Amino acid sequence: MSAPSLQAFQDQVSELLLRHRSLLDVLSKNGQSSASVNRAVVKAITECGCIELHATKQIFESGVSLEQAKENAGTHVHGELCENCREVIAAELGRELFYMSALCNLLGINMDEVIKSESQKCATLGLFNLS
User: Fold this and answer.
1) Three-state DSSP class for 51?
2) Which of 31, 57, 93, 114 has the smallest number of CB atoms closer than 10 Å to its CB?
3) Can you tell which superkingdom this protein's organism belongs to (predicted)?
């Protein structure tokens, strides 16, 4: 089964979302779902321990190539998510996408166009897209 397009997903969310039609409700649910994603990642570190966080200052030396700078930049993550944590985080991300789609629907924004626009901005700005 192939993944639906963003527009098909938006349409599906529009059909399913009955209770939270209010913009304020969707905004609060979107924020809550974002916090749940963050909490699930934190729990993978603090409760499960399948990944560890080793945060240090990112050092970018002048005069190195872009490829070398990318190689030197760290993610601060050590280890890999276990199957359970991966499933929990993926589920929370899915819920966040659901409410993001609902927000787009309420505001008349097409997610495919958002992705297209952001991709074009990334392609145009490249390395200077630091937002």
Assistant:
1) strand
2) 57
3) Bacteria
